[in-house]
Amino acid sequence: MWACQFLLGGQHVIDDPRQMAPYLTDVRKRAVGKALAVVLPGSTEEVSEVVRLCREHHIPIVPQSGNTGTVLGSIPDSTGNAVVLSLKRMDRILEVDADNNTMTVEAGCILDNVHAAARQVDRMFPLTLASSGSCMIGGNLAANAGGTSVLRYGTARNLCLGIQAVLPDGAVWDGLYKLRKNNTGYDLRDLFIGSEGTLGIITAAVLKLFPAPDSQQTAFVAVESPSAALKLLNLAKKQADCLLTTFELISQRSLDVVLKHFPDLKAPFPAIFPYYVLMELNGNGSEGQLGDLMEAILQSAFEEGTVLDACIAQSIAQAMTLWALRENISEAQARDGKNIKHDISVPVSQIPAFMTDTDARLQVAFPGCRMTVFGHLGDGSLHYNVGAPEGIPDDDFLARQDDVNQVVYDNVARFNGAISAEHGLGALKHDKNAHYKDAVEIQLMKKIKQAFDPDGLMNPGKVIP
From start to end of 65-177, where are the E strands? Predict the structure, then answer.
């Protein structure tokens, strides 16, 4: 790695095992990879030079942003022959163009810092993730991250106008277009977004900004079932149209786990209900107008028998408290014990039937298994997590993970869904994806990979089986 030290400076090349450990360890502590070194370039030009050097010596490269991914996509395997290329030094905001509603940033920008820069010009970047304090834009785009605002604003792909990327041969593609109309050939941007670093390394991006809303209304709503939640969603869409930003489904078990491990948080209702919806309206206008709209939606839902109870936040602090019940589910699960996680997507209309059918199949195959289900009902994606039955050690249950996955993924396929909604495939799901995806589609993906990366050096063992 002396050549990388010459290129970047010795302080930006790490080969001490203890210092490398954070870059090699999965965020859930499930796996630890090995690497020749971790390199930290400070510019697109330095990324290009490192990639050229690695190609010359046939060294695989694992691009890494915040290392917050959950599918083993940003750590190397156990062979120890790869270099981890961290983008954390490339954290500059290059331009904010408020009149064009765009922001150009380097790939190592932390999502929270992008939010803050947008607020300074009275704009908003709507990608909202629980890991926003540590995840980076490059990783958000590489995984096509989703989050809680997809219903209104779309995924990371929808929020990006252009990118700059270093190709596997070291060439730099400067596609930092600030255009909303650009019909001049193949959309190369969309190939890189969601490719998890297997086609090249995103080094910068042009992001879409939106007018910052000056009012919001947040409600926590109790419902009998996912079917009732779907009825509420359609009612809210009809009455609120594009003002409906968030519509999250939360099971009672999910809420129980949060209240158990975050005792400072309180249940929103004295009674217990099977399911809840966290919904939010954002817009420009008076707070009272938006409040009247939220009340009208809930009043209609009560009259239809769709809603069992509801509370509307009366302040920003109350809204943040309601959001905490949703945002702390993943952390509460981690504290509660191990479980088998699924990030799945099916058509919105099929969510209730999918949950009913899959729950039943799992109970037949694994009697007493405990479901912790929550997620983005508004866009048809769920975190569908399966825990061990009472009295069964977590590790014993995890030993049957492949069997659990097959039940869930087979049913996802029956409902014409996808086995990864927003977390990507990484090394964890790429082989399963090949089983459920159309063979022609897999072959097309392999041809694209071959065309971009014939030597197979970019994030090997990820996405493509």
Answer: 83-86, 93-97, 102-106, 123-124, 160-166, 172-175
**Residue-wise pLDDT tens digits, 240-251:** 988 999 999 999
Task: Please write down the HEC assignment for all residues of 148-176.
Answer: CCHHHHCCHHHHEEEEEEECCCCCEEEEC
Helix (H) or strand (E) segment spanning residue 447: helix 439-452
pLDDT at 160: 98
For residue 461, how many C-alpha atoms fall within 13 Å in the half-sphere facing its CB? 18
Residues 397 and 382: their CA atoms lie apart, in Å, by 21
Percent of the chain with pLDDT over 70: 98
- Model confidence at 11, pLDDT cuts 50, 70, 90, reads confident
Confidence bin at 3 (pLDDT 50/70/90)? low
Report the DSSP pairing between strands 83-86 and 37-39: parallel
CA 52-108-94 angle, to 5 degrees, is 100
From residue 336, how far is each of 193, 252, 275, 448 by CA, in Å?
34, 15, 20, 42
For 34, the token pair is 């090995």
Q: Please compute, for residue 412, the number of CA atoms within 13 A of its CA located in the half-sphere on the CB side.
A: 26
Task: Please give the span between the terminal C-alpha atoms of the chain, in angstroms, as a whole number.
Answer: 29
Q: Grade residue 30 by pLDDT with cuts at 50, 70 and 90.
A: confident
| Residue 60 to residue 225: CA distance in whole angstroms | 48
CA distances from 382 to 148, 302, 378, 408 (A): 11, 25, 10, 12
Largest Cα–Cα separation, the chain = 72
